[in-house]
Amino acid sequence: MANYKAYPEYKDSGVEWLGLVPESWTICRLKNLAAIKNGQDYKSVQTDDGYPVMGSGGQFTFASKFMYDKPSVLLGRKGTIDKPLYINEPFWTVDTMYYTELNEGFDARYLYYLALTIQFSRYSTNTALPSMTQEHLSNYKFSVPKAESERKKITKFLDHETAKIDNLIEKQQQLIELLKEKRHAVISHAVTKGLNPDVPMKDSGVEWLGEVPEHWTISTLKHHAKFIDGDRGSEYPNDNDLVDDGVVFLSSKNISNWEINIDDANYISREKFNRLNRGKAINGDVIVKVRGSTGRIGELAIFETERLNKSTAFINAQMMIIRLKNSFNNRFLCNVAQGHYWMEQLNVGAYGTAQQQLNNAIFSGMIMVVPPIDEQLTINKFLELEIKRFDGLIKNTSNMIQLIQERRTALISAAVTGKIDVRDWVAPDTQEAEEPQEVSA
Questions:
Q1: Which of 23, 374, 390, 420 could form an S-S bond across to 9 if both were Cys, CB 3.0 to 4.6 Å?
Q2: 151-182+189-211+374-441 in CATH: which number?
Q3: Quick one: pLDDT band at residue 354, thresholds 50, 70, 90?
Q4: Is 75 helix (H, G, I), strand (E, B) or coil?
Q5: CA 404 to chain CA mean position, Å
Q6: C-alpha distances in Å from residue 36, one per residue of 31, 125, 140, 150, 360
Q7: pTM: predicted TM-score of the whole model, two decimal places
């Protein structure tokens, strides 16, 4: 905040989290600025169109009538309590939210910025389901300028500056999506076209696949693997069978970013494991998610005994083992799964409405473009470097977004607690405000 000046004089606020505040400001409680009201269940007024129904994540449906028709700040009562919302149109809000009726002369937009500085962790009354009482919110203390004109200037300043910051964040988020698309395209091209641009090509006979290298074969996955479900019989482990140490009991949560992570894995005893017939992983097996929410199924990873320091594992009912023959490298299959033609086939084959599912027949019939094994290994090496490069760029951009968001939070806090003086601030011209400097990855 070095670019902004401080107020000429400060005083001790007497409030731990406020510290020193401008001499001319006053300390007041939220209840002195606005009345806090309870939301209500929306089901009796739900409709296909009408007034927005607001939850902690924003609007999610419509209501036939409104609860309040003036600008307001919404605050969480249960669940997500640390994400205040501002709304300036007639609305309905749910029974897990509070809404505010502002005192005359106090702007809802300014209260919104104040609410963003509330230290919700001090007052959350339940760790399992965070909640805020009306009493705690009503008595929360803020430091506020006495002059309405000063509050309006701070609001105008923050509206302008946060809009610029949000623009930067949006550009970085767009960059991440472009990097993900490019990563996806590079993988898809490598596993369907190869690395040699001059290699003779042939028609694959598959409309969505197009041409493939002439010396590659096209077959179904069943010619290169066998598929092993977990043992779902009477010996299938339940909660009482879980132990602190033993054989890893893998579930979908243990596969993320195309790797197996057992930091939070469950375990079953060796004796229990020995009584099970199927679903036992060995080194090099590919473990795939076959049940779950859309976008998660079909994700897979290699069970690597040396990396995990585990000789075997048992898979749960949401997973399947793909045990490959020598004609198909397991790392190459993982690369194929990150390309477009793997997910396109799975999306066509997946069934189930509440929860998407895959089965052996779907995987068995999946069309595979298969290079010679030595070429698979060469493509693996190429993609290892490319994936690392893209993931690094994505991580750097994500870190940039986090830094920008932290600056946004700090700027809001500094302005509404009087750490910076913006009374003389003048908005730049419109063009400058609409064309903020881009942040490159």
A1: 23
A2: 1.10.287
A3: low
A4: strand
A5: 17
A6: 7, 18, 12, 24, 56
A7: 0.83
